[in-house]
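Final report, section 2: Outcomes. Of the targets proposed, Peroxidase is the one most frequently requested by collaborating groups, and we therefore present its record in full.
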Amino acid sequence: ESQNTSAAGYTYLAQLLSHDLNLEETSVLGQPVDPRRLVNLNTPFIDLDTLYDFNGSRVVDEDFAIETTPSGLPRDFARDESGKAITLDQRNDQNRLVSQVTVALMS
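The predicted structure is given below as tokens.
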């Protein structure tokens, strides 16, 4: 009898890494697409461009600030007036766990 001992958090880390490796903006969810026509807009490297700018320097601009708890711990992306996360890749705000992994890596 085997037990799964891997942590569930690996799923969300893998999703974040997938966002780092793949970006395709032309297909529409639910519509058939020819995979030969897809163009990946990201590099095929884990360069963390969803956390860092293209120069490789850490994103510390106030535009990408992270909200903190009263004790100063990272809590969430800063958000604009409409509630949209201020981040380099909006896919990293698709669900709470991926956004928290992103915030943890940016902190």
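Residues 76 and 100 are 7 Å apart (CA to CA).
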